[in-house]
TrEMBL record:
Gly residues bias: start-end ranges: 567-588
Compartments, as annotated in UniProt: Cell inner membrane
Species assigned in the record: Aquibium pacificus
Residue ranges of every copy of the TRAP C4-dicarboxylate transport system permease DctM subunit domain listed in the record: 14-515
Chain segments carrying region Disordered: 539-629
Coiled coil: none
Classification lineage: Bacteria, Pseudomonadati, Pseudomonadota, Alphaproteobacteria, Hyphomicrobiales
The entry's keywords: Cell inner membrane, Cell membrane, Membrane, Transmembrane, Transmembrane helix, Transport
Domain of life: Bacteria
Function statement: Part of the tripartite ATP-independent periplasmic (TRAP) transport system.
Transmembrane segments: 12-45, 66-88, 112-142, 154-177, 189-210, 231-252, 264-285, 297-320, 326-348, 360-379, 399-426, 438-465, 495-516
Residue ranges, compositional bias (Low complexity): 600-615
Principal localisation: membrane
Any Pfam family: DctM
Protein's name according to its UniProt entry: TRAP transporter large permease subunit
């Protein structure tokens, strides 16, 4: 019995900890307690079984491993992006965006749904927080959609799915955590996820377009009386064309002598600033050149777009690291809220409180995962996982499909932080052994974890929307009508088409890795070759000048005093050595080197015998999972 427990201690530990998590025990404490309890069991069993390599002094590594989490610069981006998103959400930027884009797309069927998807994408690129996006759009868009006759399932499903875009659109918190757990660059993860995120947004819009064709009564256009900004789309097109012309002119004239990245940044800044200032002047001085719609769209859209460029543009161009980009984004969000007159002490306190809670939540889960990981690796849990997954049929594609299904099922019950800190460190070594690019693997997992926010019964996006959607009949303050409440089953039903879209997107990324692998398009620094001209005579050899030679004999000596070196060939003081010109007078009596002249024509330098050197010991990084070799 003891031998059976020792041989299967890793799966027993994994199943017990997962069961405790599913029951509902706090994640951080469950992981830490499971790690410590099974550590004690492992130490006691190690006296009987040689398969388990745990011993009491190993507990002393925990302080250093926990400290390794605290000085991780990558994780510092999490509080920055969280704070930025909360400031923007509390400064009512989502309200302005939804109202303006809803007016822009109002004349077409499904316009409010299109607006929800696009605003969800913009909020995702500025906040990176699902809760903020879903709650903001649910409070603002859902009553308007209900007021004008949208199908309740379509409306709730679109809002919930659009809010989850914050999980895959950079600067996503999921991608930051994924890059940290996979040991890869956050910038590479952002670049790799960019194209799949755009495809997901486009497919969402295609689904709404298909609904507007098949069931137009489910997604009606805004009535004329609700279009408060009127028309004027051509005026908007005109100012966009003018901004594009300013960009091209400044790019090829004023900033032509600058480096590519600097030219792009400055030309785009000048063009955007010109359009923004012209719109402000049109409103302030009532010029009447732009329509109210064009004026409002430019004034409302440019600040968040500028913030997106400040964060993502600087990261993609290599100007800033993700942590620095998050710091700039937080500063930019404070500036925007201050300019709009919406930055108060209450807003700042709420944002700081929420940011601190989320950051502490992440840190405690990661600490618990480190305690769990030390024991799990000590009882050969990583070997058990590797043997189990490497035995799957189908090679890397079989592995990816099985892992996708497992993560999808876990996502129905666990939060993405829990999955990222527990499952990803166990899956990454297997993926690397199979030759799978870890950025590609991370993006696949990121899309999968985005899907987990929509999967009943515990999809967090569905919970957020359920908490603000009316459950009973309610009176619309604008129209005065009594509207029915929204049932939970209708929210789940509306999410199902988007779950199917997400799952198909995972299969698409698996089938076409190039959607992610374009992050490798920049040539690595190791490919740069520097060729020096030959330093020698006609033979092209590398003939070093004599160290102590006479500078007047044409030998090209350095003019240094003779060092008294013996001839390199060990033939006495009169030979042609590397230090030619040395006499038998007092000098440094070094032993013969036994080497032929470096620049002697027609000779082949002898190959020196290989010297056995002991490899340098690898640094003992206690912040990483231990290796028991």
């Amino acid at each position: 019995m003891v031998d059976f427990v020792a041989h299967n201690l890793a799966p027993i530990m994994f199943v017990v900890v997962m069961a405790m998590l599913l029951i509902g025990y706090p994640v951080a404490f469950t992981l830490a307690a499971g790690g410590l309890i099974f550590f004690v069991i492992g130490v006691e069993v190690s006296h009987i079984s040689s398969e388990i390599r745990l011993f009491w002094p190993l507990l002393q590594s925990h302080p250093e491993r926990i400290y390794g989490i605290m000085y991780n610069d990558t994780l510092l981006a999490i509080p920055f992006f969280t704070f930025m998103g909360l400031i923007l959400e509390r400064s009512r930027m989502a309200e302005d965006l939804l109202d303006t884009i809803g007016q822009l797309f109002g004349p077409i069927r499904g316009g409010l749904a299109f607006a929800a998807v696009l605003v969800g994408a913009l909020l995702a690129a500025t906040t990176g927080v699902v809760a903020a996006s879903v709650i903001a759009m649910g409070l603002i868009s859902l009553p308007i959609m209900m007021r004008y006759g949208y199908d309740r399932s379509v409306a709730t499903g679109t809002i919930a799915a659009s809010g989850t875009l914050a999980q895959i659109v950079p600067p996503s918190l999921v991608l930051i955590v994924m890059a940290d757990q996979l040991g890869r660059s956050v910038g590479d993860m952002y670049v790799g996820a960019f194209v799949p995120a755009l495809i997901i947004i486009c497919v969402y819009c295609l689904y709404i377009f298909a609904v507007s064709i098949i069931k137009p009564q489910w997604v009606p256009a805004l009535p004329v009386e609700a279009r408060t900004l009127g028309g004027g789309v051509w005026s908007l097109v005109g100012i966009l064309v003018a901004a594009a012309l300013i960009y091209l002119i400044t790019y090829h004239t004023i900033f032509a002598d600058m480096r590519y990245e600097v030219r792009l940044v400055w030309a785009a800044t000048v063009a955007t600033l010109a359009a923004y200032l012209f719109s402000l002047a049109n409103r302030q001085f009532k010029l009447g050149i732009l329509s109210r719609l064009a004026e409002q769209v430019v004034i409302v859209l440019i600040p968040p777009l500028a913030l997106i460029f400040l964060v993502l543009g600087t990261i993609f161009l290599g100007i800033a690291t993700p942590t620095e980009g998050g710091a700039m984004g937080a500063t930019g969000a404070l500036f925007l809220a201050f300019v709009k007159g919406r930055l108060s002490f209450r807003v700042l306190k709420q944002a700081l409180d929420s940011t601190t809670k989320l950051s502490a939540f992440v840190m405690f889960i990661l600490i618990g995962a480190r305690v769990f990981g030390l024991t799990f690796y000590g009882i050969n849990g990583n070997i058990w996982i590797e043997e189990l997954l490497l035995a799957l049929p189908g090679g890397e594609y079989g592995f990816l499909i099985v892992v996708t299904i497992i993560i999808f099922i876990l996502g129905c019950f666990l939060d993405f932080f829990e999955i990222a800190f527990i499952a990803v460190p166990l899956l990454a070594p297997v993926a690397e052994k199979l030759g799978i690019d870890l950025i590609w693997f991370g993006v696949i997992l990121g899309i999968n974890l985005q899907t987990s926010f929509l999967t009943p019964p515990f999809g967090f996006s569905l919970f957020y929307l359920r908490s603000i959607a009316p459950m009973r009949e309610w009176t619309d303050t604008v129209s005065g009508r009594v509207l029915p409440g929204i049932r939970t089953a209708e929210i789940y039903k509306g999410a199902l088409p988007y779950i199917v879209i997400q799952f198909l997107m995972i299969l698409l990324v698996i089938a076409f890795p190039g959607l992610v692998m374009h992050y490798k398009s920049a040539p690595p620094a190791s490919d740069i070759q520097i060729q020096l001209p030959p330093m020698g005579g006609a033979g092209g050899g590398m003939s070093l000048p004599p160290l102590g030679g006479n500078t007047n004999d044409g030998g090209g000596g350095l003019g240094l005093p003779p060092l008294g070196l013996p001839p390199a060939g060990g033939q006495g003081t009169g030979g042609q050595g590397a230090g030619g010109g040395a006499d038998s007078g007092g000098g440094l009596a070094l032993p013969p080197l036994g080497l032929p002249p470096l620049g002697a024509p027609g000779t082949t330098p002898a190959q020196p015998a290989p010297v056995e050197t002991a490899p340098a010991p690898a640094p003992n990084d206690l912040s990483q999972p231990p290796k028991f070799d």
